[in-house]
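I'll show a sample.
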Amino acid sequence: MAGTNRGTARRAATAVAITAVVVAGCSTDNQDDAGDTAAPDTPRATSPIDFDLPAAQRYHRTATYPVYLNKPEGDSVDAETVAEISTVTPDGNTVIYTDAAAKRIGFVDVADPVNPVGQGTLSLEELGNADDQPTSVAAVADVVLVVIDTTGGDFANPSGRVDIVRVSDRTPVHSIDLGGQPDSIAISPDGSFAAIAMENQRDEEATPPGGEEGDLPQPPTGFLQLIDLAGEPNTWSARRVDFDVEAARSAGLDTPEDLEPEYVSINSRGQVALTFQENNGVAIIEGRTGEVTNIFSAGSESVEGIDTAEDGTIDQSGSISDTPREPDAIGWVGDDHVVTANEGDWKGGTRGWTIFDATTGEVVWDAGNSFSQLAVRTGLHIEGRAESKGPEPEGLAITEINGTPTALVASERSNFVAVYDVSDVTAPQFRQILPTTPGPEGVLPIPSRNLLVISSEADDAEAGVRASLNVYGFGDRFAASGGGDQSAASGGTPMFPSIVSGDVDGAPIGWGALGALSADPADENRLYTATDNAYGPARVLGIDLTQTPALIDTELPVTDNGEAVTLDVEGISARPDGGFVLGVEGEEGPGNELVIVAADGSVEKRVTLPADIADAMGGQGIEGVAVDGDAIWVALQRELETDPPGVARLGRYTPDSDSWEWFGYQLDTTDTEGDWIGLSEIAVYDGSLLVLERDKLNGPDARVKAIYRVALPEDAGVTSATEAPQVLPKTLARNLVPDLQATKGFVQEKVEGFAVAGNGNLYVVTDNDGLDDANGETQFLDLGPAATALGG
């Protein structure tokens, strides 16, 4: 990943991948004469999932609202601000969210789901103390219950309260001492009472007698608080429900003498379902009487076919054995079954979700490896969490869509919410995957308006990836504003996912960190791409453009002397006579090279850059490569140390003479502190060079994401680093910022690859950085006929 140096093991978050390549003169007229570019015996994968649902049967993203835009006047833009748990007023128009990082709650008007409007925040300092932290919120009638942790790090003496705040003027009307440290809150469907999980959480740095750091028991134990909501809010009070230690021990819970309630949900009968995450258990309580009717263990699960090694490779041959589920969020399907998101904590986490019979505690269905596979299949696998808890399902909500009970399960680490039809609790059916900004935790259905708001708790101002409210609408009436068509060229908003991988032998092809694209000279409806070293070893991936979404259906390992190699592939160009040219970025200048690969993936030749050019490079190197007849063009991302500021280099390599010549490219300018602009792709098209240029900004700050047209030079270029290159004039061919904004998501920083396929259409792809310093969403855009998309 150009411009970053995060360690010696592999080139940082890797990737600014890129490139792509359109073979000059390639058209449908000559493709039948072209040889097979990749090995003909490469197996084609197929997708077991139909992602292409009709508009009326899916959610459409309508808006992504970064909550730093809702900060108080005077707060630094770079200050951390998150949206963790959210609720909505009874009219469905005002979302209220907790911001534990900034110790406040926020208000956002979603009356128009396409244009959320921040309505400001309420600091907990105004309610009590500047060190107080909100843990949850729940709106009822004209007030919001704000659950507040006042423990302040004194784990042995936990404390907290719930403040009742009038929404209209944001003034407190009552406060209730909770007698411990609270976590989740839920309101009964009839609005008659609230339930609060009193966690009394452990100190992860404390060591109990005879245990290890972070172990239980660490008293005091947790409990449940119930608040009757009858009468005026200033008369409300709490009643405590304790749990029988022996009953919990008999049920098989871990360390039952120190129970830690985590999450609550209430069914239509007024029964409260509560998880004990660290204790790996579930309790059922009669909310109106406080009677504990059932406690059962969440049990353990063995899962195969998952990646369990953080080694830079998506290796799905791993497994976990007899691992405690340790559920976090819980929800009711009807009145007889509960669903848990099995995030795990100190001892467990099974990377999926489970449906239990609420009466018997028996498992009626478990996700197994399917949740992890979903992350891999959609390019959202996070290698940095492979050894821990993988996608880490944490948040969960149950709603009803057109009479169909639906489970919404959030992946905290892979940044998505998966949608399932749970009409048959013994056989849930996957329906859709929704991308989010990092750390989705609050999953808030608004059924009265067919809306869904997902709040994210991770905020990285330095990387420009900000915590947000992600707004979705269900049904075709939201399609025009939020994702009704796979092709942006046809006037719709691209759906997600726009590219997925198929399965080989029951496992999806692993991918992510794309950016390199190339047309297939032998097939007008195929492209080639490659992962960079975020996911090694190097592989060439084939894309079938006739599928919706586009389907990665082949993978070709790159080998050198029979051994797989890890390369930071930033560019790829398919050769008309078979095989590929790869543009490989090095840790330092001398590591940059062109790698010529045969159709079977074997390395035929490595071409290094001239020594003086390599020595004049900084941390960024080759980003794009394109075959042009007997020559190969490359784009270097940034200026050489010997060149004027703002002038990057385009290189032309002639294999027959083993010679290089260089030309200049004038980069756009930026006035944003810490930003820089560089090149990410090059291609030959219609007698010109096409060059992709981008800044490092994303979200609302994104400014420069564009394809420029550069005339092929008639004169020879310079041959050394010390000679000033001729700067080739450029003209704007397409501003890609509107295309990225059209997804209604968080505008991606790394738009890095494009290609004109043999079918004549222009395709653009973003590099998701392997989810490092990015939200992980890959946007693969079909921008329609290149002749139109590139301004004629």
